[in-house]
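Q: I'm building a small set of examples for a reading group on sequence design. Run inverse folding on the following structure and report the sequence directly after it, with nothing in between.
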């Protein structure tokens, strides 16, 4: 698998960090992890084949994670790249995405659900925790996270056994380390350097405690608020956990 960081930032506009989005290329197709308003443009900027995107994961309904979904579908509907497309686009998401899209759709009759190709939406909730399902032939599992009532972390394992965990936004939870256990790549939010102002995000001490317990092969810290500007994240992280920590930067590409 290959991961491309589209957006390492948050809801706060930042000159170097777009809001949330990650492109995951697998042998069986491509998956977009969260679709902020910035994500569609960032896919084009990274020369990714967005017209052939196979699946989308939406972790929760904050707009820095799903605000680009309606405009992406609107773009796909009219793009020359998709007029001959036949394969479906599948959205796997937290609860509420279909309702959100319907509300936008009805507000101006965009016909977002009438694409040149089939659109499938599978919503998941806390009830699906512990019940593996499939995304692009990969084994997928979800975990509810203490961020929003609907928010979910995602664990993916491909046929070769390579494992990726994406927490998206989360507060501290004792369930995350076991869910993320020994992942080849753990994409963990680390919104704040220290003294986080809210319990529904992590600061560096929280993130590194999770890393110590989860022992991922590599840790990618993302969802970085502007408070991080000018701070050497990787050296600060090294003092708290001896493993490999990588600061997410827009455009970073990683093999998993
Ligand atoms: Zn966010
Ligand atoms: Zn959020």
């Amino acid at each position: 698998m290959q991961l491309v960081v589209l957006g390492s930032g948050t809801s706060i506009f930042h000159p170097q960090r777009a809001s949330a989005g990650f492109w995951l290329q697998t042998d069986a197709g491509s998956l977009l992890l969260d679709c902020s308003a910035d994500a569609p443009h960032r896919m084009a900027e990274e020369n990714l084949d967005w017209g052939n995107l196979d699946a989308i994961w939406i972790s929760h309904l904050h707009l820095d994670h799903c605000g680009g979904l309606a405009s992406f579908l609107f773009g796909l509907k009219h793009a020359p790249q998709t007029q001959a497309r036949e394969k479906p686009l599948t959205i796997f998401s937290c609860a509420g995405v279909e309702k959100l899209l319907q509300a936008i759709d009805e507000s101006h009759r965009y016909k977002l659900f009438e694409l040149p190709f089939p659109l499938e939406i599978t919503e998941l909730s806390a009830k699906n925790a512990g019940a593996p399902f499939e995304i692009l032939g990969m084994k997928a599992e979800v975990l509810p996270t203490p961020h929003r009532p609907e928010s979910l972390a995602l664990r993916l394992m491909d046929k070769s056994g390579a494992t990726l965990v994406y927490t998206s936004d989360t507060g501290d939870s004792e369930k995350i380390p076991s869910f993320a256990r020994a992942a080849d790549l753990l994409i963990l939010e680390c919104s704040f350097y220290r003294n986080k102002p809210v319990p529904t995000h992590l600061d560096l001490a929280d993130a590194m405690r999770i890393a110590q317990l989860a022992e991922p092969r590599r840790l990618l810290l993302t969802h970085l608020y502007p408070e991080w500007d000018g701070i050497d994240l990787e050296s600060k992280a090294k003092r708290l956990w001896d493993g490999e920590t990588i600061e997410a930067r827009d455009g970073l590409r990683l093999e998993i």
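The first strand starts at residue 2 and ends at 7.
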